[in-house]
Amino acid sequence: MSSLALMFRPKNLDEICGQKAVKAAFLKFIATSKIPHSIFYGPAGCGKTSFARAVASGANYDFYEFDGGNLKIDDFRKILKNYENALNKPLFFIDEIHRLSKTQQEALLIPMENYKALVIGASTENPFFTLSSGIRSRSMLFEFRPLSSGDFEELLGKIREQISFSIDEEAKEYLFKSSGGDARAMLNLLEFAVTLDENVSLENLKTLRQNALKEGAKEDDTHYELASAFIKSLRGSDENAVIYYLARLIDSGESADFIARRMAIFASEDIGNANPNALNLAASTLSIVKDIGFPEARIILAQCAIYLASSPKSNSSYNAINAALRYVQSEEILKIPPYLKNHTKESKDYLYPHDFGGWVEQKYLEIPLVFYKSKGIGFEKTLNEWLEKIRSKG
């Protein structure tokens, strides 16, 4: 029997199971011949590649697939040259687009800007953390969700129309749950089970699926929900919950890079200057796990996670920059005091703090503003004491 995953790959958008909102949007895009560059992000096996192929088919684009880890920009240029006088356009599908280097991402901007090709990227990671602002601003972002039990029922129904086999409710439920919302995993497991016996049994499924979800696992235990539980446990300083969710992430096949990046963001956003060393450790972790990979990376990730969970927490820096950005984007722009500018005649009026023992009273803003509100937690308290000490001299 040919691979079920290939046999039942959707040929058009109408054959797509799940992703109803995304499908509805693209049906309208195709109908109006206005298809945006897009980034599809979500866990593996939820249909990102198949969806892109269906878009190309529905819109009469020639489909070209690339791996973000091995992409050569020259390949783009060669293909585009062949389409200079063509009536149709190519669709460049870049799997694992988050693996593109900064230089490669910048090189993509030109074909995206002039629409010489339609670009669709796919990623298992959040594009807000992994893609440049230039790529994001030229694309629409679509989140792909793991398939629901209803989506699986629909897919299973299509399979049974063409392949003869039986499966009882208990085996069917196990098939869905053990696939964790991954259609490809479900199809592969089903294919082997049907090969063993046309009467698909729970016993055979369990024999084939040694890495099935543990007893009591829930259908909504998705990639992003596990990551959310991990971060919230870090924020709540529950080191045992943190290690549990870290183990779940690792066991589910999550990349060490993704976990380390989330911890680096957390170290600054939720710990900040309450313990500045947290960011140093998180940055080191991110660098090291890229080089060593699993299984050893689990140890470095665990060390960092326990340290972050055990550290004092403060989101003062996070709140400060958000407040400042809101002000800059909504209020009148303030003038820079002349003595703070470079090479002006008023520059001589600038008071150089080192000439006054490290600090001197001086006006740095046109009007007084307060964005940073320290919580006085951990090392923030030491910083507060220092600021109070020097300002008391004024």
Give the SSE map.
Blueprint: H1 4-7, H2 20-31, E1 38-41, H3 48-59, E2 62-67, H4 73-82, E3 90-95, H5 102-114, E4 118-123, H6 127-130, H7 133-137, E5 140-143, H8 149-162, E6 166-167, H9 169-179, H10 183-196, E7 199-200, H11 202-208, H12 223-235, H13 239-251, H14 256-271, H15 277-292, H16 297-310, H17 316-330, H18 379-391
Parallel strand pairs: 1-4, 1-5, 2-3, 3-4, 6-7
Describe this structure in words.
By secondary structure, this protein is an alpha/beta fold. The protein folds into four domains: 19-143, Rossmann fold; 149-208, Orthogonal Bundle (Helicase, Ruva Protein, domain 3), CATH 1.10.8; 223-310, Up-down Bundle (Zinc Finger, Delta Prime, domain 3); 321-373. The protein is built from 18 helices and seven strands. The strands form two sheets. The chain has a five-stranded parallel sheet with strand order 2-3-4-1-5, with helices on both faces. The chain has a two-stranded parallel sheet with strand order 6-7. α5 (102-114) links the parallel β3 (90-95) and β4 (118-123). The longest helix is centred in the last third of the chain and has 16 residues, at 256-271. The N and C termini lie far apart (83 Å). Residues 34-147 form the AAA+ ATPase domain. Belongs to the AAA ATPase family. RarA/MGS1/WRNIP1 subfamily. DNA-dependent ATPase that plays important roles in cellular responses to stalled DNA replication processes. Keywords: ATP-binding, Nucleotide-binding.
